[in-house]
């Protein structure tokens, strides 16, 4: 069964460093998302991406964040200058369609980011 | 604005008991979608079910069942004859129909941690 994959599973970085989290969505999906979950808290939406552009972003997704689909399979989240409060589990998700109907979003296993 | 409330933060049951996880939602849209996801101790988010706002039929899948009631804005999840492997955090989530100006982002509740003891 197709699944969303994410790498790395765990990333440790120093405050102020740049990190890139990688995701490979399900191959025929068109809509891509990043969410984050601070330890013990609820899952929060960061950004949605369709047709090579951001379709929606949350207040959390400030200028330090960016997303890219560099090729036909990868979807990345970059944090330019990490802060301690960026420590969280980051989930990538993809869905087959959007528009008038919201399709199910399937999530990857997550990348645990630890900022020291 | 969308909101999902899962009032039960933690529930503990003994194996074979039935357990119901509550979910109450708020939205101004007439078209919306409700979801349940399971997060086992390993951390991934596993999709369980998706319902749209026009389909109020209850659904049963094995030991799992869902009760969707628009009149009370609730979408409750029942596990029958619980097992230790059901131990996880369960999240209820809501999205709207983007074609009507809403957002397809998922808005999650805070989750209910279910512990099933042997």
Describe the protein in words.
The complex is a heterodimer of chains A (116) and B (118). Chain A is mostly beta strands. Chain A is built from no helices and eleven strands. Chain A has strands at 5-7, 10-13, 19-24, 31-37, 43-50, 53-57, 65-68, 75-79, 88-95, 106-107, 111-115. With 118 residues, chain B is mostly beta strands. Helix content of chain B is 0%, strand content 52%. Chain B contains no helices and twelve strands. In chain B, strand 5 (32-39) and strand 6 form a beta hairpin. The model of chain B has no long low-confidence stretch (mean pLDDT 92). At the A-B interface, strand 4, strand 5, strand 9 and strand 10 of A face strand 5, strand 6, strand 10 and strand 11 of B.
Annotation field: number of helices of chain A: 0
DSSP helical segment count of chain B: 0
| Largest beta-sheet characterization of chain A | 7 strands, mixed
Cα end-to-end separation of chain B: 41 Å
The residue-averaged pLDDT of chain A reads 91
Mean pLDDT of chain B: 92
SSE-based structural type of chain A: mainly beta
Please supply descriptive tags for the structure shown above:
heterodimer, A: 116 residues, mainly beta, seven-stranded mixed β-sheet, four-stranded antiparallel β-sheet, globular, B: 118 residues, six-stranded mixed β-sheet, 0% helix, 52% strand
